[in-house]
Amino acid sequence: MDMDFESPLGKLDNTxxxxxxxxxxTSYYITKSYFWYIIILPFxxxxxxxxxxxxxNSNSKFLxxxxxxxxxxxxxxLYARSKxxxxxxxxxxxxxxxxxxxTGDIKSIKAKFITVGHSQVIKDILFGIxxxxxxxxxxxxxxxxxxxxxxYQRYIVFEATFHSKMPPIILNNRSVMSLSSxxxxxxxxxxxxxxxxxxxxxxxxxxxxLEAYEIFTPDVMAILxxxxxxxxxxxxxxxxxxxxxQLINTKEEMENIFNLIDYLADLFEKTTNKIHIx
Length: 278
Fold this sequence. Notes:
The protein has helices at residues 22-31, 34-57, 60-95, 196-199, 209-215, 218-227, 251-272, and strands at 99-103, 118-130, 133-146, 149-173, 200-204, 232-244. The chain is an alpha+beta fold. It has 2 domains: 22-94; 100-272, no CATH class. Strands 1, 2, 3, 4, 5 and 6 form a 6-stranded antiparallel beta sheet that branches. α1 crosses α3 and α2 (34-57) packs antiparallel against α3 (60-95). The radius of gyration is 22 Å and the shape is elongated.
């Protein structure tokens, strides 16, 4: 099987978006905001002063006071970055000819990965049609608790709705430890040939093992190892979910992941279309 793929984003070459780098645009947004100079900059100066006093006197009390002054700076930066990220996704949707919604209904997702963590929400939803089947791209936010500590995480999720049902399969890459608590299918793990099991763990509902072997042929496994080691996959009913925790900061990175996921969706649509699930 040919492992090369063409970009479906050719029209992006002629469509210039305003935000090509989230970090740079956030910095630009901040430098052009009077709020930062009038309100935030004094907090930074005072925080630096208390931080210096804390180190000179080895006094944790002044260190705590310094942290209190830096907290509004961190919150303001995260707010500014969030505004830029939302605009980035809105512009990307327009560039690829998709529609955009700022938020969506978490109940519309059938996948098991949404059972991980707490306070789950989806935002920045892009939706359109690709090769005849509906596509959604969105950012999934959730919180994972470790005792008293908590980690706020997000994943870029790609959802394809195919014309036929698929066997319930979860394919996790072994490098994403935060998703290790995703419920698997009755601990029914498959051992596939070659080095595939070094990169992915695959579980499937009982009585669907044969269909899984038909989907994950040697050619498909080679493609996933070569191009998709950092992605996770879930097949359920007529849905294919592909998701990644990779932080995307530039238009080029977003184009690359979009191209790759579109290619993988096409690949699995062809392989699963041969399988008929009652």
